[in-house]
Amino acid sequence: MSDDSRVAAPQENTSDDSASSKESVYDRSIIEGPLLPAVWKIAWPTMLQNVIGGLQGIIDHTLVGHYVGFTGNAAIGVSWQIFLVVVVFISSLFTGMSVLVARFAGAGEVSKVNRTVYQAFITAIILSLGILAPLGYIFSPNLLDLVNAAPEVQDEALPYLRIMFMFSSGMLLFFMLGGALRSAGDAKTPLRLGLAMTVLNIVLNIILIPGLGPVPAFGTQGAALGTVISGGIIGIYAIFQLFSGGWVVSFPKRGNRDIDWNIIRALFKYGLPTGIQGIAMNVGGVFLLAFIGSLAASAAAQAVYAVSYTQLFSLITWTSVGIMGAAAAVAGQNLGAGDADRAAQSVRVASRIGLLMAGFIGLLFLLLPAQLLAIFGMNEPEVVDIGVQLLRVLSVSGLFVTVALSYTGGLQGTGDTKSPLYISIISQIIIPLGICFVIQQTGNLDPIDIWIAILLGHITRCTLSVLRFNQGKWRSIKIDIGEK
User: Fold this and answer.
1) Which of 119, 282, 333, 434 would bridge with 85, disulfide CB 3.0–4.6 Å?
2) d(CA 312, CA 305)
């Protein structure tokens, strides 16, 4: 069956989930036929979308680095680390949504898919506008103090962070929609929307960061404005499409839009562990920034971390996140269709694809580290020395990250969202922070010590994720939200 095997999108939401309905709505090649093309069908658009999104961040850092300086790079890196700690909780609902959507799409239950997407939308909007925006604005200065950001970095970071907290709803809707469509078997529509949002963001940043014509130079704030404006435009378009029923997932028709507590409870049941996992990992990242901030060359090290780890390494992590999404969608749909063995094999196929991608990008880190740093205007000898160290470590670390994320996707997509939480606490918090703490207390903590601690954490996460998935306890997970 080809990529365009869906012959029609659902025109109305009914409880008729007959065999003919299944064939007309969802791409059945995900649960039937050769497995490699099925995984690749979801993986390549998601990887490309994530790489394009990563390029957007690279362009932000490049413009800010040239027009503001490396303090601007550090400000964006620190702000994103803090922002992700909070926003990942709301995004965890989308993991819960994706678990349900994949399972119901695999079983061909159209009405349950659309009910799930609508309840995720309502819950995310309430949390975003009612909690994230006001609390984020108020506590931004305290959060910047927590990570030991240098005073000059805080000056650039505070307005950036407040803009992101206040106006991120559109970006969150984009994340929600991408997860829903991919879990239902359509990875190309999120790619198109992501491309449109990235192009719009880049255009806005070229205007807003350095200033253009009558538009003043907003500097670091311009990067935040470009992000929230482009996300808002795409979010509004997505809402219109979901109400009109033009995609493989849509909102229920009028009269079927009441709050459904069964679904909301399921969203939190399967999504909350992922949210806690994300918060724990990003809190770990915040404390790691605090260790970096304690170094003698703290501003240089924070700038290197922002560019090398959060931007250049994103070429591996975002690609691997695409692989993770594909593994989750294909494994979840096949489990929903009753084929657990095919679900297991899909995760192994996804990890092999990820290793090829990570190996290629890691080779660039190993061979051309100084040249990559120069793209961001990082030419100071001290900054380059630290950055080359980190990129060489990350060239190895990426191999373990991509395998870990593939198996994390398999666990989460089949409904086991608790195991990745426990694994992340051990591998992303206890091990790297423990190593940094011990070295700091017993001697001098240098940048290379922090980079090696990151690598050991990734190796641990990979090992534990593979072992847990191969235990096979996810095979017996049942999901039921009731009929309506």
Assistant:
1) 282
2) 10
Say how many C-beta atoms besides its own lie within 10 A of residue 78's C-beta: 31
Q: What are the domain boundaries of the chain?
A: 35-473
pLDDT class of 4 with cuts at 50, 70, 90? very low
Which residues, other chains included, contact 186 with Cβ-Cβ below 8 Å and sequence gap of 6+?
Answer: 6, 27, 247, 248, 249
Residues 174-211 pLDDT 10s: 888 888 999 999 999 999 998 999 899 889 988 998 88
Token pair 């090649």 is found at 29
Query: What would the pLDDT profile of 264-319 be if each residue is shown by its tens digit?
Result: 999 999 988 988 887 788 778 778 888 888 887 787 888 888 888 877 887 888 88
Other CB atoms closer than 10 Å to residue 434's CB: what's the count? 13
Look at residues 152, 136, 83, 76 and name the one whose alpha carbon lies nearest to residue 310: 76
pLDDT tens digit sequence for 460-484 = 999 999 999 999 999 999 887 766 6
CA dist 249 and 247 (Å) reads 5
Q: Is the pLDDT of residue 378 over 70?
A: yes
Tell me what pLDDT residue 482 has.
Answer: 63
DSSP code of residue 251: P
Handedness of CA 69, 50, 119, 269 (dihedral sign): negative
Residue closest to 436 by CA, chosen among 276, 279, 289: 289
What is the structure's pLDDT at 352?
A: 94
Environment class of residue 140 by beta-carbon count within 10 Å: exposed (0-12), middle (13-18) or buried (19+)?
buried
Which phi and psi angles does 215 have, rounded to 5°? -80, 125
pLDDT digit string, tens, across residues 134-156 = 888 998 888 888 777 778 888 88
Within 10 angstroms of residue 206's Cβ, the number of other Cβ atoms is 14
Beta bridge mates, 212: 215
Least confident of 76-85, 213-222, 364-373, 386-395: 76-85
Q: Partners of 215 in the beta sheet? A: 212
Tell me the DSSP string of 438-456: HHHHHS---HHHHHHHHHH
Residue with tokens 């949504």: 97
Angle ∠(353,356,357) on CA atoms, nearest 5: 90
Closest by CA position to 410, among listed 157, 158, 102: 102
Reduce the secondary structure of 9-46 to three states and give it as a string. CCCCCCCCCCHHHHHHHCCHHHCCCCHHHHHHHHHHHH
